[in-house]
Amino acid sequence: MLNSGSSSLKYKFFDMNTEKALISGHVDGIGLDRCFVKLEFDDKVEEKKVVVKDHVDAVMLALKSLKEKNIIKDYSEINAVGHRVVHGGEYYSQPAIIDDRVIRRIKELFDIAPLHNPPNLAGILACRKMLPKIPQIAVFDTAFHQTMPPHAYLYGLPYELYEKYKIRKYGFHGTSHKYVSEQAIKLLGKKDAKIITCHLGNGASLAAIRNGKSVDTTMGFTPVDGLLMGTRVGELDPDIPIYLMRDKGFKLKEVEEILNKKGGLLGVSGLTQDVRDLWKAKLRGNKRAKLALDLFAFRTAFFIGGYMAILGGLDALVFSAGIGEHAWHVRRDICSYLAPFGIEIDQELNKKNQLLVSKPHSKIKVYIIHTNEELQIAKETRNLIHKPDFK
Q1: 130-167 pLDDT, tens per residue?
Q2: Of these four, 18, 105, 108, 355, which has the most CB atoms within 10 Å of its CB?
Q3: Residue 160 domain-assigned?
Q4: d(C-alpha 194, C-alpha 206), whole Å
Q5: Could you give the number of structural domains in the chain?
Q6: Are 198 and 369 in contact (CB under 8 A)?
Q7: From CA 320, how far away is CA 357, in angstroms rounded?
Q8: Known catalytic residues?
Q9: CA 262 to CA 140: how far, in whole Å?
């Protein structure tokens, strides 16, 4: 499984008989003097500085590590490579075998995913060059949300803008939402479940899921929309950027920086986007740290309440990703808003980050499920290449 960023490459090699990752690697700083690689295998961690000029070099380094660490003896032992691709537009609701047509479509979406699709494609092209006979599979972050109905994904814009430019809600984090919702369905023991998954990390989004299918999600045309995040502003009056540029002399680039990199928890607190540090600052009496955390909990609870309405009830609320899995106080604050709906969490279990943190008599179960996007990509890759009609 390969996840290619603008200057990084993350990879894991899975034995799909056991669904265990035999090695994972992170090449960080591609093309830079400070480039290093971190490897985890056999309960060991190795880190060293490397010279990696481009994604082809990074893929070569990744492949060499599989042999050097005795994970495989020959590259022919690799059955397929699953690639994370952030944006599949309206083209893909399922993983796809990468061919020239898929590559053209990934390129077509560069305009609406300029930070993600180009590096994703660079990793794909590097793998095609290095492993020309091995199937390459694209797994799209947006695919899971393609089941949203039009009344959920359309904006109140002139319809021609959707027809001409495909401006609509796409949603992201789909691989994570799919993985944790499938785990929740297993725990509930029923497929006809109403679930809200909360992927709360530096990037954060919710998904409303009915019978295993996404019916709405908080991120929109881009990942900026929806929840307050680490540095992204989330839901915003669209006239604010216009006001800043038209009346206050802000440049487009400055506004983009505010919306994506200077807002969210960082912007409100003026300190950091790291919830762990914000919690410590709050305990020391820092009012803006408290305000940032309060805003995060308030906005998240607001969307959860709305999703409970459109689902017509709720069987399980699922917390996942860095904040969702580890910040007990954030879960506590979010769930305190939801008490009128019958959500009751056991504070001791919640502080211990247990799997089930709701009380036995809670009307809605509350789970903490560790996301595993890499395994989900590997599973979807395996499922595709094992289909009878796979070529």
Answers
A1: 899 999 999 999 999 999 999 999 999 999 999 999 99
A2: 105
A3: no
A4: 13
A5: 2
A6: no
A7: 13
A8: 141
A9: 27
